[in-house]
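Try this one yourself first.
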């Protein structure tokens, strides 16, 4: 009974999914931050990286056959397109393009970074692609580079032609001197005249040769759309990325959270079963009793806990049950009072002991019977004891302890000995102070033995572990835990949480119908 009850995952897959959704909804601020970061990232990319335009221009590169070559070479072997591609992206061409755009030569490197030159397969075409922040600048840039490449190629061709013509003119001058010498000697100079005429013809052909080296077959035009994804696409991508980031941040926040959020976490930290999960309290006023003959989900939860304790932890018919919490909580008095009413409803004689002097007295918060009814009670009551009217659930006794200044466990022992002196010893339910804050609570647990821990979602795991260790050290018997959801939420937040909440008739385990191996799932939020 005191060991952890394993969960059977085959029966609660949907509950696990709901629990994961609830864990994510707890960190709405973190998730909203992740979505906002994603949208800001998409907007930043849209503003600084997406508004780029790419213009394209195609240049046909013409081959220049060697006019003095002895062998005719095919046109596709007269030019290296790889070499021309490297030249088109060189710094020399970029400097020419910068000057054509009216920029300084130092801007050539920046312009080169925006240029991309490719050579389509099996063609003598160079494709220039230039990227800029506006359509007109992209068109101007790509046309400037295309013209700069053709100008550079023409300059290289002109230089080669001039060099060749200079060599031919040197040969003509030498042949002319030889001819004059032969004319002076009276020799035959017909061969020299023919050779000089051939060289002069070649000079004339080279001088009239077209050195442009290519043509722009498709000039660059202003693009109508950006080269990258549009602003809307980037915002959608940013929203999707933000959603993924939000889930990741919420998961990290949940993994680093030191507070329990589910029944599994409570069971693992406390090393004891979770006997029940109390639904949200929808009561008003200061009335503690819920088990008063009503059939609410919270009353059924108390009846379920009382049934389990009566069949297991307190099966002898008598016993002492200490109800504690790790830290200060009003739920201890409520759980103790309703368990007493549930035991009374089962036909037991019950004594509720208020052993927390720092909390408001239970006598002021419970419906007490008149003194005349107390006098007619056959079972002897302890000094100062009164009867509580739990409606259709029955009646039980209430007495206070810990107000005389003596040690709490000493007073409790005297009270319990007195109420147990009759033939039928009643079941005593003791509501005491927080175990980690009230020094007498631990001594009481050591003397009484059976302990029930009341906690809430949001309790620190370390507190639950410390409670378990202290009860073990005091040789107490930890029967289990009851998790209180607190008061119901109001407004949109409550509506959202209710939509992901399991729609079951009651949120607690009914021991009479639950199969072996199953366990209740914590479906509460931090109260």
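Now uncover the answer:
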């Amino acid at each position: 009974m005191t060991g952890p009850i394993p969960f059977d995952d085959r029966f609660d897959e949907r509950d696990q999914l709901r629990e994961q959704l609830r864990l994510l909804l707890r960190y709405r601020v973190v998730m909203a931050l992740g979505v906002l970061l994603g949208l800001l990232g998409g907007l930043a990319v849209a503003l600084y990286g997406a508004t780029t335009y790419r213009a394209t221009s195609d240049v046909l590169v013409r081959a220049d056959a060697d006019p003095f070559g002895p062998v005719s070479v095919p046109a596709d072997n007269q030019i290296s397109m790889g070499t021309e591609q490297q030249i088109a992206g060189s710094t020399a061409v970029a400097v020419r393009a910068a000057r054509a755009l009216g920029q300084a030569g130092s801007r050539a490197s920046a312009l080169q970074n925006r240029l991309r030159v490719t050579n389509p397969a099996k063609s003598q075409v160079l494709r220039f692609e230039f990227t800029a922040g506006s359509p007109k600048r992209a068109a101007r840039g790509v046309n400037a580079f295309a013209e700069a490449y053709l100008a550079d190629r023409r300059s290289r061709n002109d230089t080669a032609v001039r060099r060749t013509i200079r060599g031919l003119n040197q040969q003509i001058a030498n042949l002319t001197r030889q001819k004059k010498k032969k004319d002076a000697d009276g020799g035959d100079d017909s061969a020299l005249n023919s050779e000089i005429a051939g060289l002069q013809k070649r000079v004339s052909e080279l001088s009239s040769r077209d050195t442009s080296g290519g043509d722009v077959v498709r000039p660059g035009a202003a693009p109508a759309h950006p080269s990258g994804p549009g602003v809307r696409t980037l915002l959608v991508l940013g929203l999707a990325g933000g959603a993924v980031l939000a889930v990741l941040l919420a998961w990290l926040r949940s993994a680093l959270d030191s507070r329990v959020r589910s029944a599994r976490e409570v069971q693992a930290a406390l090393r004891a079963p979770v006997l029940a999960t109390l639904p949200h309290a929808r009561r008003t006023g200061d009335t503690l009793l819920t088990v008063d003959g009503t059939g609410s989900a919270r009353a059924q939860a108390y009846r379920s806990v009382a049934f389990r304790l009566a069949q297991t932890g307190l099966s002898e018919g008598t016993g002492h049950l200490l109800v504690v919490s790790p830290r200060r909580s009003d739920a201890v008095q409520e759980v103790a009072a309703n368990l007493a009413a549930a035991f009374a409803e089962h036909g037991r004689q019950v004594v509720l002991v208020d052993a927390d002097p720092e909390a408001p007295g239970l006598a002021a918060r419970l419906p007490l019977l008149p003194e005349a009814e107390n006098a007619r009670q056959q079972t002897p009551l302890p000094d100062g004891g009164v009867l509580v009217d739990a409606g259709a659930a029955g009646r039980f006794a209430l007495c206070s302890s810990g107000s005389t200044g003596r040690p709490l466990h000493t007073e409790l022992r005297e009270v319990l000995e007195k109420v147990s002196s009759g033939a039928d010893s009643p079941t005593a339910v003791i509501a005491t102070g927080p175990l980690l804050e009230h020094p007498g609570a631990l001594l009481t647990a050591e003397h009484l033995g059976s302990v029930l821990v009341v906690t809430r979602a949001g309790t620190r795991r370390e507190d639950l572990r410390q409670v378990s260790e202290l009860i073990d050290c005091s040789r107490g018997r930890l029967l289990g835990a009851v998790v209180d959801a607190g008061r119901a939420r109001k407004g949109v937040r409550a509506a959202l949480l209710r939509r992901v909440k399991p729609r079951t008739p009651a949120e607690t385990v009914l021991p009479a119908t639950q199969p072996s191996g199953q366990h209740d799932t914590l479906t509460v939020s931090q109260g």
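Discussion: Residues 155 and 404 are 112 Å apart (CA to CA). Residues 1-11, 67-75, 496-527 have pLDDT under 50 and may be disordered.
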